[in-house]
Design goal:
about 80 residues, mainly beta, 4-stranded antiparallel β-sheet, 1 helix, about 15% helix, globular
Amino acid sequence: MSADREEVVATLEDDTGAYCVDIIKQADGRFTYVEYARNADDEDAWHPREDATAATYPSEFAAYTAAMRDVAWLGD
């Protein structure tokens, strides 16, 4: 990974394939997550849901835990 780029380290997708959450390692070594919804008009296009400026976390596990807490369908 380049020092100035983000890297998706995990993707969690719902059973229908309509939603996903990416766990992202940021250039500064911290982590965040972003929830996406599939575009109904273009199955290959995804758009962020809610506010895509999520908090950052010190570890991948902390970002995953926050996503599990905050994204309703992940707990199903």
